[in-house]
Amino acid sequence: MIRIDGLAEVVLNVRDASRAVAFYGGLLGLQRLSAEGQSGPIFFRAGQANGHVPSLLVLVPLPADAPEFAAPRTLHHLALTVPGAAFDEAKSTLVEAGLEVRDGQHPLLAVRTMYVTDPDGNEVELISPQSVN
Fold first, then answer.
1. Interval 39-51: pLDDT, tens
2. Which residue from 124, 109, 44 is spatially nearest to 78, judged by alpha carbons?
3. What CATH fold (topology level) applies to the domain 75-133?
């Protein structure tokens, strides 16, 4: 059996790179690793997979003539962790940005969760390790 010790990367196709960068880099605050103005995939740090490899979110801009996304989409959702003390502030920030924030309940973990939709229609879950009372 292979021993996995972290999630290294999630790659999303995006229709409008600047809108996706504003969402993931600006609103969610992920650290951009790719140089500004560089063509091709856009890399963001989304935590640390293990001691040597960061967890990455990679945005791949599609050409303008790429077909529309169709249901059912392959990706169900992307989940990112938020520190417990910052969960309520993150929710307020998302609401103030005009996003519909949907509360959730994780089926396995006793954690706080919420969901939003990114500019390309992907569901993004924010999970706080602070347990639910």
1. 899 999 999 888 8
2. 124
3. 2,3-Dihydroxybiphenyl 1,2-Dioxygenase; domain 1 (3.10.180)
Chain segment 7-23, per-residue pLDDT in tens: 899 999 999 999 999 99
Tracing tokens 């502030």 back to the chain, one arrives at: 89
> Among the residues of 1-133, which ranges form H helices?
17-21, 87-96
Residues 6+ apart with CB under 8 A from 23: 118, 119
What span, in angstroms and rounded, lies between the C-alpha atoms of 76 and 79?
10
Domain residue ranges in the chain: 1-64, 75-133
Q: Which CATH architecture has domain 1-64?
A: Roll (3.10)
